[in-house]
Amino acid sequence: MGPFDHAGRIDKLPLLITILILFTLTLTLVLTRLILLIRHHTPFHFDDYLILLATLFLIGGVSLLLTFIDEMYLFEAVLFASPLPALPSNWIAQGYDYHERAVGVMIVTWAVIVSVKMSFLAFFRRLIRSVEGMRWLWWTAAGFNGVVGGYGFSVYVASCPVFGNPRIFQCTTSVPLRAAVGYSLAQMVLDVVGDLLIIAIPIKLILAIKISPKKEIYLTLSLCLTVILIIVTIIRASGLVNKGKLDTTWEIFWQIMSAEIGIMIATATTFRALFVARDAEKGVASKAKQTPGSTSSRTLTKKKPSEKSYEEEVEAGSHLADLPPPQNAVLPPQRTVLPGVHTSIEGRSSRRGSRQGDEFGAFDVSPTHAILAEYEREDRISEENLAPNTIAVRREVWSSSETLSVPLVDEMGM
Protein backbone atom coordinates (compact mmCIF):
# COMPACT_ATOMS: atom_id res chain seq x y z
CA MET A 1 0.00 0.00 0.00
CA GLY A 2 1.38 3.39 -1.01
CA PRO A 3 0.86 6.74 0.72
CA PHE A 4 -1.44 8.00 -2.05
CA ASP A 5 -3.63 4.92 -2.62
CA HIS A 6 -6.67 6.60 -1.02
CA ALA A 7 -6.24 10.02 -2.62
CA GLY A 8 -9.06 9.70 -5.16
CA ARG A 9 -12.75 8.84 -5.02
CA ILE A 10 -11.88 5.28 -6.02
CA ASP A 11 -9.19 3.62 -3.96
CA LYS A 12 -6.31 2.03 -5.79
CA LEU A 13 -6.92 -1.58 -4.69
CA PRO A 14 -10.66 -1.71 -5.55
CA LEU A 15 -9.90 -0.03 -8.88
CA LEU A 16 -7.27 -2.61 -9.76
CA ILE A 17 -9.39 -5.57 -8.63
CA THR A 18 -12.44 -4.41 -10.59
CA ILE A 19 -10.49 -3.73 -13.78
CA LEU A 20 -8.53 -7.00 -13.63
CA ILE A 21 -11.59 -9.15 -12.86
CA LEU A 22 -13.50 -7.74 -15.83
CA PHE A 23 -10.34 -7.94 -17.94
CA THR A 24 -9.95 -11.65 -17.13
CA LEU A 25 -13.63 -12.31 -17.81
CA THR A 26 -13.39 -10.48 -21.12
CA LEU A 27 -10.37 -12.48 -22.27
CA THR A 28 -12.09 -15.71 -21.19
CA LEU A 29 -15.18 -14.90 -23.25
CA VAL A 30 -13.12 -13.95 -26.29
CA LEU A 31 -11.05 -17.15 -26.11
CA THR A 32 -14.19 -19.25 -25.61
CA ARG A 33 -15.71 -17.57 -28.62
CA LEU A 34 -12.64 -18.37 -30.72
CA ILE A 35 -12.79 -22.01 -29.65
CA LEU A 36 -16.47 -22.20 -30.65
CA LEU A 37 -15.78 -20.63 -34.03
CA ILE A 38 -12.98 -23.08 -34.74
CA ARG A 39 -14.85 -26.08 -33.36
CA HIS A 40 -17.97 -25.43 -35.44
CA HIS A 41 -15.88 -24.51 -38.52
CA THR A 42 -17.59 -21.12 -38.62
CA PRO A 43 -15.95 -18.75 -41.12
CA PHE A 44 -14.53 -15.52 -39.74
CA HIS A 45 -16.31 -12.33 -40.75
CA PHE A 46 -15.27 -8.70 -40.54
CA ASP A 47 -16.99 -8.22 -37.17
CA ASP A 48 -14.96 -11.12 -35.76
CA TYR A 49 -11.70 -9.44 -36.72
CA LEU A 50 -12.89 -6.15 -35.21
CA ILE A 51 -13.57 -7.88 -31.89
CA LEU A 52 -10.09 -9.39 -31.96
CA LEU A 53 -8.65 -5.94 -32.72
CA ALA A 54 -10.61 -4.45 -29.82
CA THR A 55 -9.24 -7.16 -27.52
CA LEU A 56 -5.67 -6.35 -28.54
CA PHE A 57 -6.29 -2.66 -27.86
CA LEU A 58 -7.73 -3.54 -24.45
CA ILE A 59 -4.69 -5.63 -23.56
CA GLY A 60 -2.46 -2.71 -24.52
CA GLY A 61 -4.54 -0.19 -22.55
CA VAL A 62 -4.65 -2.21 -19.33
CA SER A 63 -0.95 -3.04 -19.59
CA LEU A 64 -0.12 0.65 -20.04
CA LEU A 65 -2.29 1.60 -17.05
CA LEU A 66 -0.36 -0.76 -14.79
CA THR A 67 2.91 1.02 -15.67
CA PHE A 68 1.85 4.40 -14.23
CA ILE A 69 -0.90 3.70 -11.71
CA ASP A 70 1.29 4.93 -8.83
CA GLU A 71 1.91 8.25 -10.62
CA MET A 72 -1.84 8.52 -11.30
CA TYR A 73 -2.63 8.41 -7.58
CA LEU A 74 0.23 10.77 -6.84
CA PHE A 75 -1.38 13.27 -9.18
CA GLU A 76 -4.75 12.64 -7.50
CA ALA A 77 -3.16 13.55 -4.18
CA VAL A 78 -1.74 16.78 -5.65
CA LEU A 79 -5.21 17.78 -6.88
CA PHE A 80 -7.59 16.58 -4.18
CA ALA A 81 -5.72 15.66 -0.98
CA SER A 82 -6.23 17.96 1.98
CA PRO A 83 -3.91 18.49 3.68
CA LEU A 84 -1.36 17.86 0.95
CA PRO A 85 0.87 14.93 1.89
CA ALA A 86 4.62 14.95 1.54
CA LEU A 87 5.50 14.67 -2.13
CA PRO A 88 8.62 13.11 -3.67
CA SER A 89 11.23 15.48 -5.02
CA ASN A 90 10.59 14.49 -8.64
CA TRP A 91 6.80 14.75 -8.48
CA ILE A 92 6.67 17.30 -11.32
CA ALA A 93 8.57 14.97 -13.69
CA GLN A 94 6.27 12.13 -12.64
CA GLY A 95 3.31 14.40 -13.39
CA TYR A 96 4.59 14.94 -16.94
CA ASP A 97 4.99 11.20 -17.43
CA TYR A 98 1.56 10.54 -15.98
CA HIS A 99 -0.12 13.04 -18.31
CA GLU A 100 1.41 11.49 -21.44
CA ARG A 101 0.55 7.94 -20.44
CA ALA A 102 -2.96 8.89 -19.33
CA VAL A 103 -3.63 10.39 -22.75
CA GLY A 104 -2.25 7.20 -24.31
CA VAL A 105 -4.52 4.96 -22.22
CA MET A 106 -7.63 6.99 -23.06
CA ILE A 107 -6.83 6.95 -26.79
CA VAL A 108 -6.22 3.19 -26.80
CA THR A 109 -9.34 2.39 -24.76
CA TRP A 110 -11.39 4.71 -26.97
CA ALA A 111 -10.11 2.65 -29.91
CA VAL A 112 -11.56 -0.39 -28.13
CA ILE A 113 -14.98 1.29 -27.90
CA VAL A 114 -14.92 2.36 -31.55
CA SER A 115 -13.90 -1.14 -32.68
CA VAL A 116 -16.77 -2.66 -30.68
CA LYS A 117 -19.26 -0.23 -32.23
CA MET A 118 -18.03 -1.07 -35.72
CA SER A 119 -18.20 -4.80 -34.97
CA PHE A 120 -21.87 -4.36 -34.03
CA LEU A 121 -22.51 -2.49 -37.26
CA ALA A 122 -20.69 -5.16 -39.30
CA PHE A 123 -22.70 -7.89 -37.58
CA PHE A 124 -26.03 -6.13 -38.16
CA ARG A 125 -25.02 -5.48 -41.77
CA ARG A 126 -25.11 -9.23 -42.41
CA LEU A 127 -28.53 -9.51 -40.77
CA ILE A 128 -30.29 -6.77 -42.75
CA ARG A 129 -29.16 -7.66 -46.27
CA SER A 130 -32.53 -9.18 -47.13
CA VAL A 131 -34.69 -6.74 -45.14
CA GLU A 132 -36.18 -3.83 -47.03
CA GLY A 133 -35.86 -0.29 -45.65
CA MET A 134 -32.99 -1.01 -43.24
CA ARG A 135 -30.02 0.20 -45.22
CA TRP A 136 -30.64 3.91 -44.64
CA LEU A 137 -30.69 3.34 -40.86
CA TRP A 138 -27.50 1.30 -41.02
CA TRP A 139 -25.67 3.93 -43.08
CA THR A 140 -26.87 6.67 -40.73
CA ALA A 141 -25.58 4.79 -37.68
CA ALA A 142 -22.29 3.89 -39.39
CA GLY A 143 -21.62 7.43 -40.62
CA PHE A 144 -22.52 9.05 -37.30
CA ASN A 145 -20.40 6.66 -35.23
CA GLY A 146 -17.50 7.06 -37.64
CA VAL A 147 -17.52 10.84 -37.18
CA VAL A 148 -17.91 10.53 -33.41
CA GLY A 149 -15.03 8.06 -33.31
CA GLY A 150 -12.72 10.48 -35.08
CA TYR A 151 -13.81 13.33 -32.83
CA GLY A 152 -13.21 11.19 -29.75
CA PHE A 153 -9.57 10.61 -30.65
CA SER A 154 -8.97 14.35 -30.95
CA VAL A 155 -10.66 15.21 -27.64
CA TYR A 156 -7.89 13.77 -25.47
CA VAL A 157 -5.28 15.98 -27.09
CA ALA A 158 -7.45 19.07 -27.62
CA SER A 159 -8.58 19.17 -23.98
CA CYS A 160 -4.98 19.69 -22.81
CA PRO A 161 -2.65 20.18 -25.81
CA VAL A 162 0.57 20.56 -23.79
CA PHE A 163 3.16 17.93 -22.91
CA GLY A 164 6.24 18.15 -20.70
CA ASN A 165 5.20 21.59 -19.50
CA PRO A 166 3.99 22.86 -16.09
CA ARG A 167 0.84 24.12 -17.79
CA ILE A 168 -0.53 20.57 -17.73
CA PHE A 169 -1.51 21.26 -14.10
CA GLN A 170 -3.66 24.15 -15.26
CA CYS A 171 -5.69 21.94 -17.61
CA THR A 172 -7.63 20.58 -14.65
CA THR A 173 -8.61 23.98 -13.18
CA SER A 174 -10.10 27.37 -14.12
CA VAL A 175 -10.62 28.26 -17.81
CA PRO A 176 -8.80 25.23 -19.34
CA LEU A 177 -10.99 23.04 -17.14
CA ARG A 178 -14.17 24.33 -18.77
CA ALA A 179 -12.76 23.61 -22.23
CA ALA A 180 -11.64 20.11 -21.23
CA VAL A 181 -15.00 19.32 -19.63
CA GLY A 182 -16.84 20.70 -22.64
CA TYR A 183 -14.88 18.51 -25.05
CA SER A 184 -15.32 15.42 -22.89
CA LEU A 185 -19.04 15.93 -22.28
CA ALA A 186 -19.67 16.50 -26.00
CA GLN A 187 -17.83 13.27 -26.78
CA MET A 188 -19.84 11.28 -24.25
CA VAL A 189 -23.20 12.69 -25.35
CA LEU A 190 -22.42 11.88 -28.97
CA ASP A 191 -21.24 8.45 -27.84
CA VAL A 192 -24.64 7.77 -26.24
CA VAL A 193 -26.47 8.98 -29.36
CA GLY A 194 -24.35 6.66 -31.47
CA ASP A 195 -25.23 3.74 -29.18
CA LEU A 196 -28.93 4.57 -29.51
CA LEU A 197 -28.63 4.54 -33.30
CA ILE A 198 -26.98 1.13 -33.15
CA ILE A 199 -29.71 -0.17 -30.83
CA ALA A 200 -32.36 1.10 -33.25
CA ILE A 201 -31.18 -1.41 -35.89
CA PRO A 202 -32.10 -4.63 -33.99
CA ILE A 203 -35.27 -2.99 -32.64
CA LYS A 204 -36.43 -2.19 -36.16
CA LEU A 205 -35.32 -5.66 -37.24
CA ILE A 206 -37.50 -7.27 -34.57
CA LEU A 207 -40.48 -5.19 -35.65
CA ALA A 208 -39.89 -5.79 -39.36
CA ILE A 209 -39.64 -9.58 -39.35
CA LYS A 210 -41.37 -12.35 -37.47
CA ILE A 211 -39.02 -14.34 -35.26
CA SER A 212 -39.52 -16.92 -32.55
CA PRO A 213 -39.94 -15.83 -28.91
CA LYS A 214 -36.65 -17.53 -28.08
CA LYS A 215 -34.75 -15.36 -30.55
CA GLU A 216 -36.58 -12.28 -29.29
CA ILE A 217 -35.23 -13.04 -25.83
CA TYR A 218 -31.68 -13.25 -27.19
CA LEU A 219 -32.00 -9.93 -29.01
CA THR A 220 -33.61 -8.28 -26.00
CA LEU A 221 -30.75 -9.49 -23.80
CA SER A 222 -28.24 -7.97 -26.22
CA LEU A 223 -30.15 -4.69 -26.13
CA CYS A 224 -30.18 -4.70 -22.34
CA LEU A 225 -26.41 -5.18 -22.26
CA THR A 226 -26.03 -2.25 -24.64
CA VAL A 227 -28.20 -0.15 -22.33
CA ILE A 228 -25.77 -1.03 -19.53
CA LEU A 229 -22.96 0.36 -21.68
CA ILE A 230 -24.91 3.60 -22.11
CA ILE A 231 -25.42 3.80 -18.34
CA VAL A 232 -21.67 3.39 -17.78
CA THR A 233 -21.00 6.25 -20.21
CA ILE A 234 -23.47 8.48 -18.33
CA ILE A 235 -21.74 7.65 -15.03
CA ARG A 236 -18.39 8.52 -16.61
CA ALA A 237 -19.73 11.89 -17.74
CA SER A 238 -21.44 12.71 -14.44
CA GLY A 239 -18.25 12.34 -12.38
CA LEU A 240 -15.78 14.21 -14.55
CA VAL A 241 -15.61 17.19 -12.20
CA ASN A 242 -14.73 16.67 -8.54
CA LYS A 243 -14.31 19.62 -6.19
CA GLY A 244 -14.10 21.97 -9.16
CA LYS A 245 -11.30 20.02 -10.84
CA LEU A 246 -11.09 17.45 -13.63
CA ASP A 247 -10.87 13.93 -12.19
CA THR A 248 -8.79 12.04 -14.74
CA THR A 249 -8.65 8.88 -12.64
CA TRP A 250 -12.45 8.67 -12.66
CA GLU A 251 -12.52 9.12 -16.43
CA ILE A 252 -9.85 6.50 -17.05
CA PHE A 253 -11.50 3.94 -14.77
CA TRP A 254 -14.97 4.21 -16.30
CA GLN A 255 -13.63 4.33 -19.84
CA ILE A 256 -11.77 1.06 -19.29
CA MET A 257 -14.98 -0.35 -17.80
CA SER A 258 -16.86 0.72 -20.95
CA ALA A 259 -14.24 -0.93 -23.15
CA GLU A 260 -14.39 -4.23 -21.24
CA ILE A 261 -18.19 -4.32 -21.09
CA GLY A 262 -18.37 -3.45 -24.78
CA ILE A 263 -16.25 -6.44 -25.78
CA MET A 264 -18.32 -8.73 -23.56
CA ILE A 265 -21.53 -7.46 -25.18
CA ALA A 266 -20.14 -8.04 -28.67
CA THR A 267 -18.99 -11.51 -27.67
CA ALA A 268 -22.42 -12.32 -26.20
CA THR A 269 -24.01 -11.29 -29.50
CA THR A 270 -21.75 -13.76 -31.30
CA PHE A 271 -22.68 -16.51 -28.83
CA ARG A 272 -26.32 -15.89 -29.67
CA ALA A 273 -25.62 -16.09 -33.39
CA LEU A 274 -23.67 -19.35 -32.98
CA PHE A 275 -26.43 -20.86 -30.84
CA VAL A 276 -29.12 -19.95 -33.36
CA ALA A 277 -26.99 -21.32 -36.22
CA ARG A 278 -26.44 -24.57 -34.32
CA ASP A 279 -30.19 -24.93 -33.72
CA ALA A 280 -30.78 -24.44 -37.44
CA GLU A 281 -28.22 -27.11 -38.31
CA LYS A 282 -29.89 -29.56 -35.91
CA GLY A 283 -33.26 -28.82 -37.46
CA VAL A 284 -31.98 -29.48 -40.96
CA ALA A 285 -30.32 -32.72 -39.85
CA SER A 286 -33.50 -33.98 -38.16
CA LYS A 287 -35.58 -33.20 -41.24
CA ALA A 288 -33.10 -35.07 -43.41
CA LYS A 289 -33.45 -38.15 -41.21
CA GLN A 290 -37.25 -38.02 -41.23
CA THR A 291 -37.73 -37.33 -44.95
CA PRO A 292 -37.92 -40.52 -47.03
CA GLY A 293 -35.82 -40.49 -50.15
CA SER A 294 -33.69 -37.63 -48.94
CA THR A 295 -30.03 -37.43 -49.79
CA SER A 296 -28.90 -38.36 -46.30
CA SER A 297 -31.25 -41.36 -45.97
CA ARG A 298 -30.95 -42.71 -49.51
CA THR A 299 -28.89 -45.86 -49.99
CA LEU A 300 -27.75 -46.86 -53.41
CA THR A 301 -27.96 -50.57 -54.08
CA LYS A 302 -26.28 -52.26 -56.94
CA LYS A 303 -28.86 -53.77 -59.27
CA LYS A 304 -28.39 -57.15 -60.86
CA PRO A 305 -27.40 -57.01 -64.48
CA SER A 306 -29.96 -58.00 -67.09
CA GLU A 307 -29.82 -61.57 -68.25
CA LYS A 308 -30.57 -60.52 -71.83
CA SER A 309 -27.42 -59.70 -73.77
CA TYR A 310 -27.46 -56.75 -76.13
CA GLU A 311 -24.43 -58.05 -78.07
CA GLU A 312 -24.47 -60.93 -80.55
CA GLU A 313 -21.13 -62.63 -80.40
CA VAL A 314 -19.67 -65.53 -82.36
CA GLU A 315 -16.62 -67.22 -81.02
CA ALA A 316 -14.35 -70.01 -82.40
CA GLY A 317 -13.41 -71.95 -79.33
CA SER A 318 -14.03 -69.45 -76.48
CA HIS A 319 -17.01 -67.73 -74.86
CA LEU A 320 -17.11 -64.01 -74.09
CA ALA A 321 -18.78 -62.64 -70.98
CA ASP A 322 -22.03 -60.79 -71.51
CA LEU A 323 -21.87 -57.03 -71.41
CA PRO A 324 -25.19 -55.90 -69.93
CA PRO A 325 -26.46 -52.44 -70.77
CA PRO A 326 -27.65 -49.88 -68.16
CA GLN A 327 -31.32 -50.33 -67.36
CA ASN A 328 -34.49 -49.50 -65.43
CA ALA A 329 -34.57 -45.83 -64.38
CA VAL A 330 -35.72 -43.22 -66.89
CA LEU A 331 -34.52 -39.60 -67.00
CA PRO A 332 -36.57 -36.72 -68.44
CA PRO A 333 -36.76 -36.91 -72.26
CA GLN A 334 -34.25 -34.88 -74.23
CA ARG A 335 -34.28 -34.01 -77.87
CA THR A 336 -31.12 -35.54 -79.18
CA VAL A 337 -29.54 -37.20 -82.21
CA LEU A 338 -30.54 -40.84 -82.63
CA PRO A 339 -27.35 -42.69 -83.50
CA GLY A 340 -27.46 -45.43 -86.08
CA VAL A 341 -25.95 -48.88 -85.71
CA HIS A 342 -23.68 -50.32 -88.35
CA THR A 343 -22.90 -54.02 -87.95
CA SER A 344 -19.72 -55.48 -89.41
CA ILE A 345 -17.77 -58.72 -89.01
CA GLU A 346 -14.07 -58.48 -88.43
CA GLY A 347 -11.32 -60.93 -87.82
CA ARG A 348 -8.79 -60.38 -85.12
CA SER A 349 -6.04 -59.62 -87.59
CA SER A 350 -8.12 -57.67 -90.08
CA ARG A 351 -7.68 -53.97 -90.62
CA ARG A 352 -10.32 -51.90 -88.89
CA GLY A 353 -12.42 -49.59 -90.94
CA SER A 354 -13.13 -45.99 -90.03
CA ARG A 355 -15.47 -45.58 -87.06
CA GLN A 356 -17.80 -42.70 -87.41
CA GLY A 357 -18.76 -43.02 -83.77
CA ASP A 358 -15.39 -41.49 -82.91
CA GLU A 359 -16.67 -38.26 -84.37
CA PHE A 360 -18.63 -37.70 -81.17
CA GLY A 361 -15.50 -36.29 -79.61
CA ALA A 362 -15.99 -33.18 -81.72
CA PHE A 363 -19.45 -32.47 -80.27
CA ASP A 364 -20.94 -31.84 -76.83
CA VAL A 365 -21.59 -35.32 -75.49
CA SER A 366 -25.21 -35.81 -74.44
CA PRO A 367 -26.29 -38.55 -71.97
CA THR A 368 -27.25 -40.79 -74.93
CA HIS A 369 -23.84 -40.33 -76.53
CA ALA A 370 -22.15 -41.12 -73.23
CA ILE A 371 -24.07 -44.41 -72.94
CA LEU A 372 -23.26 -45.41 -76.51
CA ALA A 373 -19.64 -44.49 -76.04
CA GLU A 374 -19.57 -46.76 -73.00
CA TYR A 375 -21.01 -49.59 -75.08
CA GLU A 376 -18.32 -49.11 -77.69
CA ARG A 377 -15.58 -49.02 -75.07
CA GLU A 378 -16.79 -52.32 -73.60
CA ASP A 379 -16.97 -53.74 -77.13
CA ARG A 380 -13.34 -52.85 -77.74
CA ILE A 381 -12.28 -54.48 -74.48
CA SER A 382 -14.12 -57.68 -75.41
CA GLU A 383 -12.54 -57.70 -78.86
CA GLU A 384 -9.05 -57.35 -77.45
CA ASN A 385 -9.66 -60.46 -75.34
CA LEU A 386 -10.43 -62.62 -78.42
CA ALA A 387 -8.09 -65.26 -79.68
CA PRO A 388 -6.19 -64.52 -82.93
CA ASN A 389 -8.61 -66.51 -85.10
CA THR A 390 -11.77 -65.33 -83.38
CA ILE A 391 -14.50 -63.63 -85.36
CA ALA A 392 -16.80 -61.16 -83.55
CA VAL A 393 -19.91 -59.37 -84.63
CA ARG A 394 -19.53 -55.74 -83.67
CA ARG A 395 -21.82 -52.73 -83.82
CA GLU A 396 -20.43 -49.51 -85.20
CA VAL A 397 -21.95 -46.27 -83.91
CA TRP A 398 -22.50 -43.51 -86.41
CA SER A 399 -24.33 -40.21 -86.42
CA SER A 400 -27.77 -39.87 -87.95
CA SER A 401 -29.80 -36.83 -88.85
CA GLU A 402 -33.01 -38.32 -87.41
CA THR A 403 -34.26 -36.76 -84.19
CA LEU A 404 -36.42 -38.34 -81.53
CA SER A 405 -37.44 -37.64 -77.96
CA VAL A 406 -35.54 -40.51 -76.38
CA PRO A 407 -36.00 -41.62 -72.75
CA LEU A 408 -32.52 -41.85 -71.32
CA VAL A 409 -31.44 -44.53 -68.93
CA ASP A 410 -29.31 -44.03 -65.86
CA GLU A 411 -27.85 -46.86 -63.88
CA MET A 412 -28.08 -45.04 -60.56
CA GLY A 413 -31.83 -44.66 -60.73
CA MET A 414 -31.75 -40.86 -60.39
TrEMBL record:
Region feature (Disordered): 286-362
Family the UniProt entry places it in: Belongs to the SAT4 family.
Name by which UniProt lists this protein: Rhodopsin domain-containing protein
InterPro entries: Rhodopsin_dom_fungi, SAT4-like
GO CC annotation, single: membrane
Membrane topology reported for the UniProt record: Multi-pass membrane protein
Record localization: Membrane
Keywords of this entry: Membrane, Transmembrane, Transmembrane helix
Feature: compositional bias, Polar residues: 288-299
Residues in Rhodopsin domain copies: 33-275
Pfam families xref list: Fung_rhodopsin
Primary localisation category: membrane
Sequence intervals crossing the membrane: 15-37, 49-69, 102-124, 136-157, 185-207, 219-240, 252-277
Keyword Membrane in record: yes
